């Protein structure tokens, strides 16, 4: 028995007129009469009776009405709730980030710009954090609209996904105040001193790759004794334990926060590797113009 027939039972009890029921369902009167007859045939009992021009439910009809009303009510509730979810999802724009690119958004003016953009378009902006492989899976499935990550290998633009470099950030040495190099000022000499000390590192292969390229170029051997899964954890660990760390400048919090933690930044040499940040989105996304506006606001 279909949902239409359940709805028909409810409306017959409410209006008691075939014409009114047909108008409510936006179907023809003969169609209502046809379904009434089919229902009685299906159940094998009389459900309706005519009295003084009105359609009334029999005892069996009222029994069926008890269940039909519940089914109709549950369907209407489900339709309403799922409709609300659909409307919310349609206006939701999900940016997928690695822990590193999420730190960039959190520590830069990009979040404020994205908020202004989303408000002007009536969109709900949300951030989802996953590793790069999972981000691409979600992008392929359509559960995220746009992803950001540190470049590991060069991707070719086109095909299923579009790619764009958001910029490249220079690497910086983060020195805690209890470290012997805290007051060091000569950048060239600082580089040569780094391999004498242990580091803590960020568990992000794209950052590690750039640091490795730089150290190999200068034939430095940097020793790491601990790895941390987020920029925030790494910074707090360096400040607490007095260890050096190398990070892209764009991932670091404002200078006031670093000062509060007793951390100083120092530049590497002028030829130091830079950490590129990449954005990707589906080539068939329905609003490419909005994508470009997002790109404009998060680029370095």
TrEMBL record:
InterPro entries: LysR_HTH_N (IPR000847), LysR_subst-bd (IPR005119), WH-like_DNA-bd_sf (IPR036388), WH_DNA-bd_sf (IPR036390). The keyword Nuclease does not apply. Gene3D superfamilies: Periplasmic binding protein-like II, Winged helix-like DNA-binding domain superfamily/Winged helix DNA-binding domain. This is HTH lysR-type domain-containing protein. Residues 1-58 form the HTH lysR-type domain. It comes from Paenibacillus sp. BIHB 4019. Pfam families: HTH_1, LysR_substrate. Keywords: DNA-binding, Transcription, Transcription regulation. Belongs to the LysR transcriptional regulatory family. It comes from the Bacteria. The keyword DNA-binding applies.
């Amino acid at each position: 028995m279909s949902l239409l027939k359940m709805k028909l039972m409810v409306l017959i009890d409410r209006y008691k007129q075939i014409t009114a029921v047909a108008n409510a369902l936006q179907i023809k009167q003969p169609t209502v009469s046809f379904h009434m007859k089919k229902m009685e045939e299906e159940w094998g009992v009389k459900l309706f009776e005519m009295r003084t021009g009105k359609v009334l439910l029999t005892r069996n009809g009222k029994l069926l009405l008890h269940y039909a009303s519940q089914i109709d009510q549950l369907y209407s509730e489900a339709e309403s709730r799922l409709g609300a979810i659909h409307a919310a999802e349609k206006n939701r724009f999900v940016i997928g980030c690695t822990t590193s690119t999420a730190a960039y958004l959190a520590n830069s003016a990009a979040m404020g710009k994205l908020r202004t953009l989303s408000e002007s378009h009536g969109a709900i902006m949300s951030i989802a954090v996953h590793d790069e492989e999972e981000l691409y899976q979600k992008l392929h499935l359509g559960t995220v609209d746009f992803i950001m990550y540190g470049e590991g290998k060069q991707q070719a633009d086109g095909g299923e996904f579009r790619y764009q470099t958001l910029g490249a950030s220079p690497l910086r040495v983060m020195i805690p105040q209890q470290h012997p190099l805290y007051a060091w000022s000569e950048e060239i000499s600082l580089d040569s001193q780094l391999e004498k000390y242990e580091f803590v590192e960020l568990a992000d292969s794209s950052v590690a790759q750039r640091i490795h390229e730089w150290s190999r170029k200068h034939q430095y051997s940097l020793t790491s004794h601990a790895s941390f899964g987020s920029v925030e954890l790494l910074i707090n660990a360096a400040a607490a334990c007095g260890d050096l760390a190398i990070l892209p400048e764009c991932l670091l919090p404002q200078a006031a926060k670093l000062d509060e933690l007793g951390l100083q930044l120092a530049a590497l040499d002028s030829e130091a590797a830079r950490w590129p940040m990449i954005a990707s989105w589906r080539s068939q996304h329905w609003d490419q113009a909005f994508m470009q506006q997002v790109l404009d606001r998060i680029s370095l």
